[in-house]
Write a structure and sequence with these properties.
By secondary structure, the chain is mainly β. It has a domain of 116 residues. It is 5% helix and 42% strand. Strands 17, 18, 19, 20, 21 and 25 form a 6-stranded antiparallel β-sheet that branches. It is globular and about 75 Å long.
Length: 569
């Protein structure tokens, strides 16, 4: 115990005198969505134990924290280390990590209050819906997207979606754009058709489309429906544009998959893309995962079940109707505009995609390919995309040629069918809702109804797995713990290649767990000491390790874990 105490004191002093801290300013740490902080110099495999590590602070906040917490060191003058959380009550809070006290708090209610869950016809998020997605930080600004409800002079409810630019030093709102405002009288939707505040739309005849007279002719438009669309996917900042992905509330339509981009300077809409402009569904939700990107600013995402017609492809293999349900999609900027749109919208376009040969069957069974977010893995001059969906199959793709669609065989690099989520207590269904982590040629997934698994990755080829006597995929390295539905989104801390730790929230039990990454041996969990417990774990939530702390967002509280030698000895 003395050795543990000495190690903890040395680590604490190192933290106090360190001039460097790794900030976590976006979902899963970086553009690649790898989920890795490899500059963690304080926490290690020696001091993450029940004697030296534990709960430091619990910070009350109004509303549920579905978004991943973010962290920024040395903010303002005097410099403070701040953690940032957002809630379903449309609260944004900065917390002083050194004291566990709120530094500033604001409620975004300029365009109404949070939306009662009953308005959406879904009980997925209760009792209110406000800020669901993980924000993104750039410099001294945090970008946040909220949902709200207000009434007009005729007492008709309006549903608004608004993006904000907020100064992280003070909580002052620098800019805002109420980019979508949909009135709904219980039967009809009314959109802002014209003017500088017109709602986003694409050309198409898909679900919810309306006919509009423009340019002296009628054209079919699909407008963004601010009531039906939900921004669960984390915000991404790529090449000066904030990208947001949207799906639905409980599959209640009309809805589509949308990507909307906003200029990071003034928040004006810079791009609008619809994944099913002539069909329906195809939502982008990814269990909260971000739209990932590569070093050339290409975007990568996954869509859920929705329209895809394999019989109507152009000569290059792309859907003629622009519908991409249950697909991996690669996007790039283009010069299209609102008045001169491409097949899916404007500002960005689809440049490649992949969907498996069983697209129709997974669509019919509601086994969204897009239940998880993609990973971007550079390897020499190549870039690989790794991802999975509800049925637990893992796909590897070369970003230069993702594979598109073939009814006979997949043309992606590799497919491992039902690699995650063995059949069991989940109603005889695989249930993968877990964006993976990638570090040092290893992939880590924590699927529902399954143990956490480690796979190897070599030049895009996934290894380290085998089929057991029951035909189930097993790996050479697994956790002893089985994770209930919906599994877990993990993160990794490491000091270079040393002391590599997987941090995982076991949502079913409200337990934070730490695993040694090399063999997935559990080295610590929050149930080992009574003072380390937390409550109200939220599905899809991600723990964040940064600068000697681990942050856990939950129902009405942020929990901060770290070294606690004075309390344990």
């Amino acid at each position: 115990m003395k050795k543990n105490l000495l190690a903890a004191i040395i680590a604490t002093l190192s933290l106090m005198t360190s001039s460097h801290a790794t900030d976590v300013t976006t979902y899963h740490n970086n553009q690649l969505a790898s989920g890795v902080n490899d500059s963690e110099t304080v926490l290690n495999l020696d001091n993450v134990n029940q004697f030296d590590f534990g709960l430091k602070y619990s910070v009350y906040v109004q509303g549920q924290i579905y978004a991943q917490p973010l962290f920024k060191s040395k903010v303002g003058t005097p410099a403070r280390d701040l953690a940032f959380v957002v809630t379903q009550h449309n609260v944004v809070m900065a917390v002083d990590v050194s004291t566990g006290s709120p530094f500033w708090t604001i409620t975004l209610n300029e365009f109404g209050t949070s939306v009662p869950s009953g308005d959406t016809g879904s009980g997925d998020l209760t009792p209110e819906i406000g800020i669901v997605s993980t924000p993104v930080i750039s410099g001294n600004n945090i970008f946040v997207l909220s949902k709200s409800k207000r009434y007009d002079v005729n007492n008709t409810p309006h549903y608004c979606q608004t993006i904000y630019k907020i100064d992280i030093r003070t909580g002052a709102v620098i800019a805002r754009n109420n980019f979508a405002d949909t009135a709904f009288d219980g039967s009809n939707y009314t959109y802002r058709i014209a003017g500088p505040k017109a709602d986003p739309y694409v050309l198409g005849s898909g679900d919810g489309s309306i006919s509009v007279i423009a340019h002296n002719r009628a054209e079919n438009r699909v407008y963004f429906n601010a009531l039906r669309q939900m921004n669960r996917a984390a915000l991404s900042l790529v090449d000066g544009v904030i990208y947001a992905g949207f799906a639905s509330h409980g599959d209640n339509g009309p809805y589509h998959g949308w990507v909307i981009g906003f200029a990071d300077t003034n928040l004006k809409v810079a791009a609008v893309l619809n994944t099913t402009p002539n069909g329906g569904l195809g939502g982008i939700w990814q269990s909260g995962g971000r739209i990932a990107s590569d070093d050339k600013n290409n975007l990568y995402l996954e869509t859920g079940n929705g329209s895809f017609d394999p019989t109507q492809l152009d000569t290059k293999g792309f859907p003629l109707d622009g519908n991409y349900g249950d697909c991996f999609i690669k996007l790039s900027k283009d010069d299209s505009t609102t008045s001169r749109q491409n097949r899916n919208g404007w500002g960005v376009r689809v440049v490649d995609y992949f969907t498996p040969t069983n697209n129709n069957s997974i669509n019919a069974a509601d086994l969204d390919l897009g239940s998880c977010g993609p990973l971007v893995v550079p390897s020499g001059s190549k870039i690989f995309i790794i991802g999975t969906g509800k049925d637990g199959s893992i796909y590897s793709m070369n970003a230069a040629n993702m594979g598109k669609f073939d009814p006979v065989s997949n043309h992606n690099l590799q497919t491992i069918n039902q690699a995650l989520c063995i059949q069991g207590d989940t109603g005889n269904q695989w249930t993968a809702f877990c964006t993976g982590c990638y570090f040092n040629n290893r992939l880590f997934y924590f699927g529902g109804g399954d143990r956490g698994k480690q796979f190897t990755l070599n030049n895009g080829v996934i290894g380290g797995w085998f089929l057991d006597d029951n035909g189930q995929v097993q790996t050479d390295v697994e956790t002893a713990t089985t994770f209930a539905w919906p599994g877990a989104n993990s993160s990794i801390s490491a000091n270079g290649n040393n002391s590599v730790i997987n941090w995982v929230i076991d949502r079913d039990a409200s337990i934070l767990r730490a695993f040694r990454a090399s063999d997935l041996l559990e080295v610590w969990n929050s149930s080992q000491a009574s003072g380390d417990n937390f409550s109200g774990a939220i599905k899809f939530s991600v723990p964040v390790a940064a600068n000697g702390n681990v942050f856990v967002g939950a129902d009405s509280a942020l929990y901060i874990y770290g070294l606690n030698p004075s309390q344990r000895h």
